[in-house]
Design brief:
Helices cover about 35% and strands about 25% of the residues. It has helices spanning about 15-25, 40-50, 70-75, and strands at about 5-10, 30-35, 55, 60-65. The relative contact order is 0.25.
């Protein structure tokens, strides 16, 4: 099963847009999506705070802002 992690936080318009894009992508059925709020972890906040939302698949990461085309290409990896 493919596992995706979306590093995000509350009250983040880009994060909401990223989630909407993810939900609209065909072919994600069966994928596991974990949403991690970086505000709950100081280490994650340092690493991702200025780049969120960040989508992680394996060791690859896609940082905001990204388009539907960027996301589709990333998910093909």
């Amino acid at each position: 099963m493919r596992r995706l992690i979306l590093y995000s936080t509350a009250h983040c318009d880009l994060c909401d847009e990223a989630m909407d894009l993810l939900m609209s992508m065909p072919g994600l059925n069966g994928a596991r999506l974990d949403v991690v709020d970086v505000a709950n972890d100081e280490r994650l906040m340092e690493r991702y705070g200025e780049k969120i939302p960040v989508l992680r698949q394996g060791q690859a990461e896609l940082a905001a802002p990204f388009t539907a085309e960027d996301l589709a290409h990333f998910l093909e990896q």
